[in-house]
């Protein structure tokens, strides 16, 4: 990386362009704390409320949440190696499956993911701080949006730095609270309410699985600066352990808060449980968790910027300057803030419905992307061709588009979105949600079958040519001036 001069120069200069080898930096182990912290906030605690709100007991909620997180994180973690090996943002790499313009289809899903997460985050933070301190909801939303946008504007290295710092601040606070829960010093009495029912169990499992599956479009964005020779097993393991460990921990804590303290607001209940341990712990936990969630909003804004610029570039060539990065992030901040202020639904209902819809949209994409990377092209891509509208991968990648649409259409009759719509097969299954599994399976299998006609050997010649071209260039594809 070039030596930075002042705060203005410390703003990341790259966005959707390729990161050349001489700018690669960072360590694989950094990915573990980074993704651990991404889930180490009260948003995750709220997911542990879903099962109890539907009558599920604490231990069944913990089991469903754990299984869901482990399953969803598998898909998320396998995307991590793509960034290190290719040096590209995730959605630019998806041009290989969907085409230079066809990628707009999954881009819509990922754009919705980033904006929706920030809307829900804003609702949760403003509701929690309002409940604790009586702070004005709109003012809170404006402030946290400004901070999140600033983190995103400074970019990749600053997001990593903020996350690592907050990791070491938050870890001991949650460890103290968790120990107090086991020792019975955090309040709560009795065995808690609830029992087992399959609908609630699957709702908890689905929401938990979707939590980390919806992180899949992010992962390469934050691993693309790692050295090219990063070992796949090392980075996949680091991401998996980090992202799953914190989520399992806090979903279990959320289940305890919901059943033993009858909590309905994650931030308020986190504060109250901490204060039961000793005065001041609850306040520290509340502010630390809010800080982490605001940092995560910055991460969402950064990914949203990459998605938006990639979408615009599909139809009108974009030079990814700092100016377009900043303008895009500011526009996104305005959008999610306006939507957040206008939302009146309860935080839990908003969270649950949003996660389910995002899962339905992203499951077909992640299946197509991973099948292509690991089973069709085996990680071999002509990077320069990903920046050419009529190049090797075409304008419209019909294999990827058809597989996505087939998987999504097949899943629609299985939809179960409480309070919005339940499909006929979802009704037949008494509300048990398997729509995302249907979309995931059908899209992955469809893409593999459709790709049997792909001439991978011919592509390999282009891949080798592309590698030589990159090695000969002083300036990589689409690098900024």
Notes on the protein architecture:
With 481 residues, the protein is mainly α. The chain has one domain (13-472): Hydantoin permease. Helices cover 69% and strands 1% of the residues. It contains 22 helices and 2 strands. The protein has helices at residues 6-9, 31-38, 42-47, 50-53, 58-78, 80-86, 90-93, 95-98, 104-133, 137-154, 156-183, 198-213, 216-219, 232-260, 266-277, 281-313, 322-342, 347-376, 398-411, 424-428, 435-450, 456-472, and strands at residues 416-417, 421-422. It has a two-stranded antiparallel ribbon with strand order 1-2. The chain starts with 5 loop residues before the first helix and ends in a 9-residue tail after the last helix. Mean pLDDT is 87; it is low at 1-9 and 474-481.
Classified by CATH, the class is: Mainly Alpha
Please name the fourth-level CATH homologous superfamily.
Hydantoin permease
Count of discrete alpha- or pi-helical segments spanning 4 or more residues: 22
Please identify the structural class as seen in this structure.
Answer: mainly alpha
- Give the % helix: 55-70%
Biggest sheet strand line-up: 1-2
Beta-strand content bin:
under 5%
Number of structural units classed as domains: 1
The fold-level CATH name is: Hydantoin permease
């Amino acid at each position: 990386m070039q030596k930075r001069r002042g705060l203005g120069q410390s703003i990341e200069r790259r966005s959707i362009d390729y990161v050349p080898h001489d700018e690669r930096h960072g360590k694989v182990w950094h990915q573990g704390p980074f993704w651990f912290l991404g889930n180490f906030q009260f948003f995750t605690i709220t997911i542990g409320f879903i099962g109890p709100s539907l009558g599920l007991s604490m231990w069944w909620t913990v089991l469903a949440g754990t299984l869901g997180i482990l399953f969803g994180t598998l898909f998320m973690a396998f995307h991590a190696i793509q960034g290190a090996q290719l040096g590209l943002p995730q959605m630019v790499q998806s041009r290989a499956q969907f085409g230079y313009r066809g990628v707009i289809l999954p881009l819509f899903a990922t754009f919705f993911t980033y904006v929706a997460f920030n809307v829900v985050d804003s609702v949760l933070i403003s509701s929690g701080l309002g409940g604790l301190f009586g702070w004005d909801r709109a003012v809170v939303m404006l402030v946290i949006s400004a901070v999140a946008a600033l983190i995103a504007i400074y970019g990749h290295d600053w997001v990593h730095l903020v996350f690592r710092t907050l990791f070491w601040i938050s870890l001991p606070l949650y460890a103290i609270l968790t120990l107090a829960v086991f020792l019975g010093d955090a309040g709560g009495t009795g065995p808690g309410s609830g029992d087992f029912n399959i609908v609630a169990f699957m709702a908890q499992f689905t929401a938990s699985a979707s939590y980390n599956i919806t992180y899949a479009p992010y992962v390469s964005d934050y691993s693309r600066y790692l050295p090219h020779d990063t070992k796949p097993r090392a980075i996949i393991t680091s991401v998996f352990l980090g992202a799953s460990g914190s989520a399992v921990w806090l979903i279990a804590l959320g289940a305890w808060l919901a059943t033993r303290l009858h909590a309905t607001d994650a931030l308020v209940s986190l504060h109250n449980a901490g204060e039961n341990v000793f005065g001041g712990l609850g306040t520290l936990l509340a502010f630390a968790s809010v800080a982490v969630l605001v940092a995560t909003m910055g991460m969402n804004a950064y990914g949203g910027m990459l998605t938006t610029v990639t979408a615009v570039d599909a139809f009108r060539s974009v030079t990814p300057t700092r100016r377009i990065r900043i303008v895009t992030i500011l526009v996104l901040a305005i959008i999610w803030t306006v939507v957040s202020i206008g939302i009146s639904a309860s935080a839990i209902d908003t969270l649950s419905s949003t996660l389910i819809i995002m899962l339905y949209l992203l499951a077909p994409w992640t299946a197509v992307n991973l099948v292509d990377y690991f089973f069709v092209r085996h990680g071999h891509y002509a990077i320069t061709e990903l920046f050419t509208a009529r190049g090797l991968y075409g304008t419209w990648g019909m294999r990827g588009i058809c597989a996505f649409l087939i998987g999504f259409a097949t899943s629609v009759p299985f939809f179960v979105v409480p309070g919005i719509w339940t499909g006929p097969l979802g009704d037949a299954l008494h509300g048990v949600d398997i729509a995302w599994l249907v979309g995931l399976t059908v899209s992955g299998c469809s893409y593999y079958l459709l790709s049997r006609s792909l001439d991978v050997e011919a592509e390999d010649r282009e891949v080798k040519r592309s590698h030589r071209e990159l090695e000969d260039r002083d300036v990589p594809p689409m690098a900024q001036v």
